[in-house]
Amino acid sequence: MDYPNDQAPGAPVRSGIPEHGRVPKYYAVKAQVAALVEELGEGGLLPTERDLATRFEVSRETVRQALRELLLEGRLRRRGRGTVVAGPKLEQPLSLASYTEGVRRQGRRPGRSLISLERFPCPPALAAEIGAERGEPVWHMERVLLADDERVGLESTYVSEARVPRLDEDFDPDSSFYGYLRDRLGIAFGDADERIETVLATPREALLIGTPPALPMLLIHRLSRDTAGRPLERVRTLYRGDRFSFTTRLDG
Question: What's the pLDDT at 173?
Fold first, then answer.
């Protein structure tokens, strides 16, 4: 099989073109727009759908489908009534490092916006996951994740009140929860189990994150334990699929 000389190692083989050479019209337009995106650079304003349709001699619906895919992939983003070239995706390590640490390493400013902090009796399904007894008080903290004030995710944290009795008084919800546990309470993380899947946000979640309901999300479930092996927290985090990628190191 022949490969284009300029094909990046991580790109789709043969640029995604089938061996029979028949390419959907929208995909050909998408490739042309992608080349234009590279020329414009981050923040560059894309021509209107009408102008692109005229340039590539296709219908506006064909252009719209090509743009829709580039938007979902995070190559473009809407700004007002226009479309601009998006910046690179945030890389979040699959590790016990906090969201704050991951975003700061890329020169971005992390932040969080508190949606709710509430206390409720622990249900049976949650008890074993966080090391609590059924009916014991449990904290639920929900926060929108920010990067340079851009909404990029939604995080729900469940933890026993016995482990963090003054969470509503001593904790700054805009700061790192892991940093609070470590620095204020002397609780260190030992290990965790994580599960990642692709989902669509619910209407409520899409509204809080500020995305269309059809935008794919990366959902991470995490069950964390302290250094003594005791269950500590359960976290459900939604990340925007167009703004995040995840990295990890695999050892033999």
Answer: 93
- pTM here is 0.73
Do 54 and 20 touch, CB atoms closer than 8 A?
Answer: no
Q: How far apart are CA 121 and CA 127, in angstroms?
A: 10
> Which neighbouring-strand residues pair with 200?
216
CB-facing half-sphere around the CA of 85: CA atoms within 13 A:
17
Torsion (CA) 34, 102, 176, 240 in degrees, nearest 10: 30
Amino acid at 100: T
Task: List Cα–Cα distances, 221 to 30, 94, 236, in angstroms.
Answer: 34, 12, 5
Strands 189-200 and 90-93: unpaired
pLDDT digits (tens, 9 = 90+) for 122-133: 999 899 999 999
- Per residue in 163-194, pLDDT (tens digit) is 999 999 999 999 989 889 999 999 988 999 98
Under-70 pLDDT residues of the chain: 1-19, 21, 91, 93-98, 100
Which DSSP category does 95 fall into? S
